[in-house]
Amino acid sequence: MNKPVQPQHEDLRISQLYSYHILDTEEEEEFDFITDMAAKICDTKYATVTLVDRERQWFKSRHGIEATETPVSLSICATAIKTSHDFFEVPNIKIDPRFRDIPPVLGDPDIVFYASYPLITEDGYALGALCVADDKEKSLTQEQRKGLKSLSAQAMRLLELRKRNFELKQNQTYYHTLIENTHGSPYRSLDDENQTFVFLTKGFEIITGHPVADFLNNPQKSFKDIIHHEDLKRVMAVKAEAIRENKTWELQYRINHSSGFLKWIDERGKTFYDELTNKIYIDGIILDISFRKNEEALFKNIFDNSQGLICIHDFEGKIIKINVAAAESLGYELDQVIGKNLREFLNEYDYPMIERYMSEIKNAGRHKGILRLKSKSGTNKYWAYDNSVAEFGGIKDMIVTNSVDITDKVRMEKTLKATEERLHLIAQTIDDAYYVYNVNQGKYEYFSPNSEKVIGVNLDFFSGGKNFNDTFVHEEDKLKCKEAAKNLLNGTAFNIEYRIVLDGQVRWLNEKAFPVVSQNSKETRYAGRVTDVTQRKNIQFELENTKEILEQASKTARVGAWEVDLIEKKIHWSDMMKEIHAVPEDFQLEFDNSLSFFKKGFNRNKASEALDLLIKKQKQTDQELLIVDANGKEKWIRLIGKAEYKMGSCIRLYGTVQDVNDIRKKTSELIKTKQQLESILSELEDVVWAFKLPTYKMLFVTPSVERFFGVNSNECMQDPEFWTQFIYEEDRYIIEEIGLELEENNGYEKEHRIVTKDGSIRWVCHIGKVIFDSNDTPIRLDIKMSDVTKDKEFEKQLIAETNRANAASKSKSDFLANMSHEIRTPLNGVIGFTDLLLKSDLSHLQQQYADNANTAGKSLLNLINDILDFSKIEAGKLDLEMVESDLHEILYETLDIIKYPAGQKNLEIILDIPPTLPNQFLIDPLRLKQILINLLNNAIKFTEKGNVTLQVVPEFTVENNCKLHFSVIDTGIGISEEQQKKLFKAFSQADNSTTRKFGGTGLGLTISNLLAEKMGSHINVKSEEGKGSTFYFTVNTEVIVTQSRNELANKAVKRVLFVDDNAEVRSITKKHLESWGLECYTAGNGFEAFKHLTGNLDFDLALIDYHMPYVDGIQVISQIRKELKLDASMLPIFIMSYYSDGEKLKTPMIKLKINQNISKPLNYADLFDEIENLNQDVAQNQQPQPLQEQKLSGEFTVLVAEDISMNMLLLKTLLGNILHKVRVIECGNGQIAVEKYLAHDVDLIFMDVHMPEMDGLNATQNIRKIEAKTGKHVPIVALTAGALKEDQQKCFEAGMDDFLTKPIHPASLKSVLEKHLELKDSGDHAIDQESNSERKLSFNKVKLMQLIDNYQPLLKELLITSRDLIKKIEAIKSMLTNLDREGVKANAHYIRGASQSMAFDVLAELSEAMEMSALKAKEETLVEIFGKLESEWSRLDKIILEEITNIADE
């Protein structure tokens, strides 16, 4: 059932329903009486008072029904109240499409009839309905309706009464609680002299202390008696005036409480005239405000007499009230302050502060701080305040300040702060920490500010009672520190150095402490200073380490020290000195022989000369000389000498001797190596240089720099960036790029141009690399620059050659495209007209001629396709389209294509696939089929007898990956090894005789192998002359669906006999049959079949091959029927034959009652279905013939632009054959096509691409420009003989929607027509029962008849009623004139709902578009949609009238 349409204001209706507080209440007799009466009056089995909320329909009362509620989606009542606010009746629910499928109709209770009157509130909302129902079809009489309506009104009155009672009880409870809980006492009194009370509450007694009974209805006792005598006259005068003028009064006055105390009363009242009694009453309330009054008095006393500074001001800063203390603090009288603005008492530089104060207290409600004010004398006053926002005197948002004058405190604090800052500054400038320790109190009284920094310990430690010595002092120094502390107690100061350990780190401290005795106090204190000497100690340790290191270094570097005392004439040598000279440790050199170890001659003379200069002229010496050690070995040493003078005379010589013998050897070797390297570098063509990092000091540059740049190498050594001056102007950006790549990658490689000194431009390859040391620190940049000008020139030539090759390739493609077009255009006529000719009545000879011509045309087309495919692959323009594909379907379609030529040669085609082969794989179905067809056609072509097998073997790898092994095996002529080498070469065959005998271009295998290579494989061949060939390849793919066929559901077939002379076919088919759960027996001929059939086994089905040697299948079946007496009911039989055998088997099949003719090669999917659907009672007398092709229904106008009259005639003929009714507009070129398009309303355009004057591409572009303005779009299909992908792309870019390649195949044409034409009805009305269920129809009669169970009377009534929709359409037209968008939307909604119910598909769609666009779309858009809607109604109305007439005639 359709969900009830939600009316507007549904939320308000639900809200009204909830306000009655009726849902889920107990049963009530009053409502039960109404349902009982309704059932009796209407003579029905069921009656309910039903209320409907969002989710359910709930029964307040029910007669004959057990359920208390049902979901609203299954509610008839919900539909009733949302459809009509009046009587609602359904005589027979079962034929009403709105309710036919809901449970109350289908189940228990079995409701057939339903009627109701809604329960409508005073505001017009339907809460539910009084419903009656029965299990028989009926209709209420006028009297019954009248009675039901009265009962419905009575039920609604009960609901209203119940609601008012509920509200009254709520109000009574509310007012009672209000009166009891209020702090006042309401009253009512007479308007007499004493104003006698007639109503009082207990609150009166609480307020006055007097019993209520003393005053209530007692004219002798007046409230005036307890009013304070000072207030009585005023109170009575105000009340008398208000009563006289009929106004309200508000009074505050005192009364005498029964206890003798005074109480403050707030009274408010007004006179009330009672129309029923014709009396005037005084109504009022008295409130006890004593507490508030007392608080006000107390506040005033505190405010006036408080020593605190109290001020009240608003958010503008205006001072409302201030106490005396606050005014005097500023030196003013009260009247000089009140009314002034707070800002008048501020210094100008404090204005921003007061603005921030106002903002913050407004947001937070409270604020604390110190306010600086300017006193009358001009001095600053400081108030510490704690302010809050409060209500004062009935005025909200007042700021009450509570302050204290802290001026003196602030001034004192400033003085102290200045003193502290000075002391703090002094303490901070001293690196030491100072402390004072009170011995008597056992605590530290003072630490200087930097103490924590110096000592390294948080100062809180010293107040925690722990011992510093035990906690932090190094273990080796603890005893020293304890002894010092002990001596200090005895009055002895100390100065010690010790270590402390903090977080594992050692720190050295120097501490000095001494006792301090106060003259005025008996307390003893220690004063101490602590200095961090860690750095000094570390330096000391480092110096000691350095000395040790130097001594070690001396040994390592073989440096010895010497000294000559010229006064004492003594020579001192270090141990290393003795080791260098190879003398013993106790050796002592004599003063007179001091130069004896220097080699005689030049070296000893140089040493003597150096020492003389050192003594006489203080000239230091540093030179390398040869010595001869004690063992007679020559050594190179470095002699360094200095002199010490005293009073102008040299008194001492000292210095070092270093053993540099090894260094001299290595230096010599390095010099030799350097010379060799310089020799090599001088021959280099490339320039290599390096500079040091980070100093950018040039280290070297090869001599080739002079040849390379024409610049001197010495100049380059002065400037590490010498190369930048030679960069070609347009390439100077390369400098910045090199810098960036060095930063990011520590190297670069660039190609750019340079201009040498002689002005020549050269291309260079420029490479640089940063060199790092062992610590990853960059130390050097190595650079090489090579001349690549010749390489660049070669590259330029290569590009030119490539461009020429590409141009040649394009010329070839253009030639192929033109060749394709020129050949396909006449082929279009040849194949098209011979196809038509073959379908006409021809003599046998004519049939043969036409068939030969058609075959020749198609062969030529295949040849062109092969050439184009080869060209695409060769040019790399053929791409695979990997899609999810049904492999079984590909294989069967492939075999369907080749089975006819195989049948003509009586060749057995065998499909060998395992039963478990999955269906869905990720492959290119078109190209796989192309390979298989080519291989199979070749096998058939070269096989004269025997069979051709297509074998597929899956090999599953990981997850869903799979290898598919394809093999095509034949029993043909075979191929020699020599011939196999030529197989995959383009335009070649095994030998020339093959071409002469079998024909072909020699491209087929080449193309197939190239396609296989694109799939990641290649085609292999195994063959032997005279024994046949096997072509095989493998495709890597992905399994999408692994499910294979299940067992047969037809349990009537259990045992099958399969008869075929081919053992391979028997083996393969047996596996498939057994995988379906069948028991299969096989036979190789009729004799074996008879043995099985005459045995003890009963067979449910026999499959028998027609082509068997000696005794064919028909003969075997004839013997089975006649001799074994097994008719079709006892043994159903399928005969298996070639496709070409169908005609000659018709008569035998009828005669022998053969159930089915199964074409070979066997399609196992079809065989499965045939066995599954086997009906043993009905024999199929002939091979199933395809249904006669039906013309596509509808009436269309098609524009055809074609300059060749033959092609025009062919396309017109094909259109007439496919479409039921078509008008063809003929155009000879693109210009005429554009003109005809403008003049006619066409449904589809066929546009030839190549035409004179204006071609199809330009014509399409012109049409699309026109449509851009009109908003219209007519599909355009390209007609071209160009078969290349580029041709198709040009058509789509021009704006065409589809593409047909010449010659045009009828099936392709039909597919295009079905895709682009909205098929219309070709019969008497717009119903097309054969059309696709997804198509939109003006009147979908099939759908409506299904909804109403094919009930013709109801159909007629619905159709008659539907014609009222014209009123809604006219209403929309009127509303569009006034642009009443809400009205348009509402009426469109109505039409949509009705159209959906009536199966007016197109009208429903258009009205929905109108509804969705009504509120926001432009006016012209709405007018356009309405035009379509009005046009559709005009068409639909004719259909409706015709349908009504047809029903009447029936």
Automatic annotation (TrEMBL):
It is a multi-pass membrane protein. GO terms for cellular component: plasma membrane. Residues 492-545, 748-800 form the PAC domain. It is found in: Cell membrane. This is Sensory/regulatory protein RpfC. Residues 1350-1450 form the HPt domain. Residues 1055-1175, 1197-1317 form the Response regulatory domain. One of its GO terms (molecular function) is phosphorelay sensor kinase activity. It is an enzyme of class 2 (transferase). The modification 4-aspartylphosphate is found at D1105, D1248. The keyword Phosphoprotein applies. Residues 295-365, 419-492, 673-747 form the PAS domain. The modification Phosphohistidine is found at H1389.
